Fold:
Amino acid sequence: MPETIERDEFLDRAKPIDPIVGDLLSRLSDNLQEEFEERAAILEFDALYPRRLAESLGLLDVLRRNLFGLTGVTALQIELDGQTQWLAVTDAEYVRQHLADVHAKVIGEIDLRVAIDEQYAGCACLCNLG
Structure:
């Protein structure tokens, strides 16, 4: 019976207390969700913040460092046929697999806004990847 209580407590802890945190968290990639869980746990157990505050601050910290996480759009810098190109993607893992099939190399992944500002002076034209 103690295992059931521990398991139920664990499953209950897997969901954020605050519904807003839960909603925003559901929009993040698995990697960013894992980063959130780690950050929130550190704040709760090491810094001894109450769980609700630890989760809120953990989410803010993840978003501060990965603002593109909520948009679901990111920019991939790739090398294809000896040329550097930028891709705006919504499913980075799928695109990475496709790029590997066509022998393209992913060089970096950054916030789409940063890529447009830095690489295209604030304005970029989108087209399909052939």
User: Anything to note?
Assistant: The first strand starts at residue 74 and ends at 80.
